[in-house]
Design a protein that fits this description.
The chain is an all-beta fold and about 100 residues long. The chain is about 0% helix and about 40% strand. The protein has no helices and eight strands. InterPro entries: Chaperonin_GroES (IPR020818), Chaperonin_GroES_sf (IPR037124), Chaprnonin_Cpn10_CS (IPR018369), GroES-like_sf (IPR011032). Heptamer of 7 subunits arranged in a ring. Interacts with the chaperonin GroEL. It is found in: Cytoplasm. Its main location: cytoplasm.
Length: about 100
Amino acid sequence: MSLNIKPLADRVVVEAAAAETKTASGIYIPETAQEKPQKGTIVAVGPGKYADVSGTLIPMTTKIGDAILYGKYAGTEVNIDGKEYLIMRESDIYAVL
């Protein structure tokens, strides 16, 4: 998948996973009651952040294709080519699955 967007510094572009539409017991959840997903896949990664003191580039620890967990209110929602994405800092990512 190719996006025409290149995040800067320590930012990543994430495609959020679909919200759960059914509970484990089989009850369907209406769209108004669905929770915002906290899981997604990285589709673009910036080059990394420069250290304040030494000025050396600190490379990113995540890469394209990583499945991640992030905070409920992390990132900024953007619409690119009719699809919803999140742009967030790498520090907003809690874990790589």
